[in-house]
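Q: Here's a chain of 205 amino acids. Please give me its 3D structure as C-alpha cells.
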Amino acid sequence: IHRLRDRGVLFSIVSGRKFSFMMDLYHRMDGLMDSFIAENGCVGYADGCRQLLCEAGHRDALIAALGRRKVPYDPGDVVISVNRRYLPEVEEVLDRHPSYTMIRNVDSLMLLPHGASKATGIRWLMDVYCVDPQEMACIGDAENDIDMRGLCSIMGAVSNALPAVKRESDYVCRRSFGAGLLEFLEYIENGHTVKAPREDAKTPL
C-alpha cells in the first residue's frame, strides 16, 4: 500500500461493517487508509468528515417488527444486520416495510434503505476524489461486492470469494483473505493498472 500510495494511488475500504468498527480500523491502520465506506454504502468518511449517504424512514417501526417476531438484530447507524437463519421472518417483515431492502452478505442479512449499495459509496468517493470508473480498481469476496463491478475498471476476487464474485472479476487471486489482497495489490503494481489519473486527481483503490 505504501508503494502504491507513493505513485498517487488512494486506498479506501468499502465495507458492510458498522461506522464505529471502520473508524477504529482507520486509526489502527495509521494513515494507510485514505477514506472508507461503512454499512454497505450508507455512511462515508473522507477528509476527516463523516457523511450519511442514505437513510430510510420508519426505522423504529422496522426494529419493533423484528422484535415482535423475536428476531435478533444488530443495528448500525443505518443498516440492520440479522443472521441468515431468520430469512423467512425477515422477508415477512420487509413485505410491510418497502422503504427497506435486503441483501445477503455471507452468513448475514443486511437490511438497508432501498437502492443503497456499495456502489452508492463508490459513487460518493468518485465525487470526493474527482475520478471516474477508468481510474478505479476494487477487490471483494461476497455478494454485496458485486455492485462495485460497474464502477471499476479492474475487479479482483480473493480465492475464498463466492463463485458469483469470481465470475464478475478480471483477476481471481490464488490466495485468500489478506494474502489475496496483497496478491491483487502486487498485480496492480506490476503493470495491470487503471488509467493514469488526471493531474488534478488521484486514483482510489
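Q: Can you summarize the key feature?
A: Residues 194-199 have pLDDT under 50 and may be disordered.
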